[in-house]
Amino acid sequence: MKEPLMRITHIDHYNIRTRPSDLAAVRDFYVDVLGLTEGARPRFPFPGYWLYGGSEAAILHLAATLPESAPPISPDKPTGQFDHIALKATGLESAKAKLAARGIAFDARLVPGWNMMQVFFTDPAGLKVELTFDMERERHAL
Q1: What does the H/E/C string look like for 42-103?
Q2: Residue 6 near residue 90 (C-beta atoms within 8 A)
Q3: Which residues share a beta bridge with 82?
Q4: How far, in Å, are 68, 81, 116 from residue 65 at the CA level?
Q5: By the number of CB atoms within 10 A of the CB, which of 99, 107, 123, 139 ranks highest?
Q6: Locate the VOC domain: which residues (predicted)?
Q7: Contact yes or no for 132/118 (Cβ under 8 A)
Q8: What pTM was estimated for this model as a whole?
Q9: Cβ–Cβ contacts within 10 Å for residue 118, how many?
Q10: Distance CA 48, CA 62 (A)
Q11: Which CATH number does 7-141 carry?
Q12: Domain extents in the chain
């Protein structure tokens, strides 16, 4: 059977990177001001939170992956601590083939303990993009 073509279905989440010491302040802002709630998160090897709105999908991922020696959080940075945007997609093999055919370097990773594949790459404006694939759905599409 032929591999399905890549298709983007919706924006999945956005990611903010912080120093470990700044993580609680950023989490508290989104919980207290916007009403997001902490929810399930894979066992990544770094501290963080996945924050949810009114659905089963986390809309904000917080990742304390910056060293303490990095500059602290500040509202004066043009894009703050923004790291990447994630798009939910289908057609994993098609996506990897398309990126490779265009000479776009990418990094594909399984999410620890979750049935999800992430494909990271950079767009021409320098923005990191993540395509997120539900591997159970991918298997059934073949």
Answers
A1: CCCCCCEEEEECCCCCEEEEEECCCCCCCCCCCCCCCCCCEEEEEEEEECHHHHHHHHHHCC
A2: yes
A3: 16
A4: 9, 11, 20
A5: 99
A6: 10-134
A7: yes
A8: 0.81
A9: 18
A10: 5
A11: 3.10.180.10
A12: 7-141
Per-residue pLDDT of the chain (142 residues; tens, 9 = 90+): 566 788 999 899 999 999 999 999 999 999 998 899 999 999 999 999 999 998 778 999 999 999 999 999 888 888 888 889 999 999 999 999 999 999 999 999 999 999 999 999 999 778 899 999 998 888 876 5
What's the token pair of residue 41? 């998160």
Residues in Cβ contact with 116 at an 8 Å cutoff, skipping those fewer than 6 apart: 110, 132, 133, 134, 135
Long-range contacts of 119-127 (CB under 8 A, 24+ apart): 119/92, 119/95, 120/84, 127/84, 127/85
Q: Match 């601590």 to its residue by tokens.
A: 81
What does the pLDDT read at residue 142?
57
76 token code pair: 């004066």
Six token digits for residue 95? 């996506």
* Cα 64 to Cα 22: distance, rounded to the nearest angstrom: 8
Name the one residue in this structure whose structure tokens are 């059977």.
1
